[in-house]
Design brief:
Elements: H1 3-13, E1 18-22, E2 41-46, E3 52-59, H2 69-85, E4 93-97, H3 99-105, H4 113-126, E5 128-136, E6 142-149, E7 152-155, E8 170-174, H5 176-184, E9 187-191, H6 192-197, H7 200-219, E10 224-227, H8 228-234, H9 243-260, E11 263-272, E12 278-286, H10 288-299, H11 327-333, H12 339-348, H13 351-367, H14 376-386, H15 397-440, H16 444-457, H17 460-468, H18 471-498
Antiparallel strand pairs: 1-9, 2-3, 3-5, 4-8, 5-6, 7-8, 10-12, 11-12
Helix pairs in contact: 2-4, 3-4, 7-9, 11-12, 13-14, 15-18, 16-18
Length: 499
């Protein structure tokens, strides 16, 4: 690839159409991103002594319903764009455009697009927010907000605007509380064209993850971290507790970001939230698109002074600081890795990955020591960071335990099957013996009557085959029918006596 190709590729990755979004309210959810149903939107954070630090509740109008994916697209792609394009201070009345223009801009098709957009605007306008929170102002100061409000009213074409004019398109009229926040808050840049390409849930992930991604790149960290429970709360989305459901749900959201190069890779590490429920720490390696966004935003006056914070400490597991290294850190330091690097590795990568690479390292030391061309510690650090593939013939402890457990289960099943076969054979022999004894004890008259009953109760196809068989074969055939009948009678008698 030539230098010109590199420049062209970076130009494709770089955001050409930047939108600046306020950082106070946009990080909190207003919309459900699932296509159907409702999700309670409530976030609360208290200090250790019970003081309420953050409260965020959103209620919806029962007639228009909870703001959903379309309402989310309208807010993030139309309303935010018009607010960003407006003069400062932001005016109270803002023109969005005609319903036709709005439908075309966000590509709403099928069904009744204009009616759907109109209803989604009503959903947004009637969403009532009750909140107590703090945010950083555009002058760097910390501001507080405690209020109950809707963000804006909506006025459609032909209706009267607050200043008496007749609306020639769809307008929004900003609520005073909302205007106060917008005019005094910091903003952060996002790639508007990229936002438009993403489905709603992946778009919300981009909005939330961009805080941590920007901070990770700025500080030189290899990964941006986000808790699964935290994301589900701030998206909001249904939070699952089974790993397969979590993996399937997040794979769909990650797919467009991996394809675009915003995310290079993502790893999950299982943990618990403060209530003991299953949670996962998601570690994202920034891709070329994320890095180029950072460079582009910085060149164009990006949010260099923004404090990127963890969204909320409500959900993640509380941990007590301890100066003592963990057992896994001690395993690393015993193999030549410094304490600081060991702590960084344990923080950055899943424990299962580190344990597998330690076992791999020990195996190589014993089997192929010449393959370790660097120092022990240097080799193991690179193996963990790059997730070296396992060689043929090597299996980790967990793989070995699984294999042995499967072999043990298979052997037990084979033994049980063999025992069942032997027991069935013994039972057959016992029934044959009892049937023979009963037959020998019968008089000729009883034998004739027994054979007649056995033949009468035999399956119709068996009886027909008996009757059509040559005379020399009928006697052996009748003996088998009689034997089967006597076995059945004996089994019934034994079952009745045992019951």
């Amino acid at each position: 690839m030539t230098a010109n190709d590199d420049v062209s590729q970076l130009a494709d990755l770089a955001p050409q159409n930047i939108i600046r979004v306020e950082t106070a309210l946009s990080r909190y959810p207003v919309h459900r991103l699932a296509k159907q149903g409702t999700i309670a939107i409530e976030i609360r954070e208290e200090s250790s002594d019970g003081e309420k630090l953050i409260n965020w509740e959103v209620s919806h109008n029962s007639h228009y319903g909870q703001p959903g994916p379309l309402a989310y697209k309208l807010d993030t792609l139309i309303v935010n764009r018009r607010i960003e394009e407006a003069s400062r201070p932001i005016p109270k009345v803002i023109r969005l455009g005609s319903l036709h223009e709005i439908c075309r801009e966000i590509d709403v098709r099928g069904g009744k697009p204009r009616e759907n957009v109109k209803n989604a605007l009503y959903q947004n306008a009637s969403a009532f927010i009750k909140t107590k929170l703090r945010y950083r102002g555009n002058d760097g100061s910390v501001k507080s907000l405690e209020a109950g409000f809707s963000r804006y009213s909506v006025v459609f074409t032909g209706e009267k605007l607050p200043d008496g004019r007749k609306a020639n398109a769809v307008y929004i009229v900003l609520n005073d509380v909302f205007m106060q926040v917008l005019n005094g808050v910091q903003t952060r840049p996002l790639d508007y064209d990229y936002l438009k390409e993403l489905p709603p849930a992946s778009q919300r992930l981009y909005e939330i993850l961009s805080y941590q991604m920007y901070s990770a790149i700025k500080s030189g960290r290899q990964h941006a971290k986000l808790s699964y429970a935290e994301f589900c709360t701030y998206a909001p989305l249904t939070r699952h507790e089974a790993w397969e459901s979590v993996r399937s749900q997040m794979n769909k959201l990650h797919a467009p970001h991996k394809k675009s190069g915003y995310i290079a890779s993502v790893e999950f590490e299982q943990t618990l939230d403060r209530n003991g429920k299953p949670d996962w720490t998601m570690s994202y390696a920034p891709g070329e698109k994320a890095k180029e966004e950072f460079r582009t935003f910085a060149k164009r006056g990006g949010p260099k002074n923004i404090e990127v914070e963890v969204l909320s400490p409500v959900l993640p597991l509380k941990t007590e600081p301890t100066p003592e290294p963990s057992p896994l850190e001690r395993e690393l330091t015993s193999r030549g890795i410094t304490e600081r690097t060991a702590a960084q590795l344990v923080e950055a990568f899943p424990a299962a990955r580190i344990e597998a690479q330690i076992e791999h390292f020990d195996w190589l030391k014993a089997k192929e020591p010449k393959s370790i061309v660097k120092s022990d510690g240097g080799f193991l650090v690179e193996a963990i960071r790059n997730n070296y593939p396992m060689p043929n013939g090597f299996e980790t402890k967990s793989e070995r335990e699984n294999r042995l457990a499967n072999e043990k289960l298979k052997n037990e099943q084979e033994r049980e099957s063999a025992m069942r076969v032997r027991a069935a054979k013994v039972r057959d022999q016992e029934l044959d013996r009892k049937a023979d004894e009963r037959w020998e004890a019968m008089s000729p008259e009883e034998r004739t009557a027994t054979e007649a009953v056995a033949l009468a109760e035999a399956d119709e196809d068996i009886r027909r085959s008996y009757e059509k068989s040559p005379p020399k074969f009928q006697r052996p055939f009748l003996e088998r029918i009689r034997q089967s009948y006597l076995r059945r009678v004996i089994e019934q008698e034994e079952a009745a006596s045992n019951g």
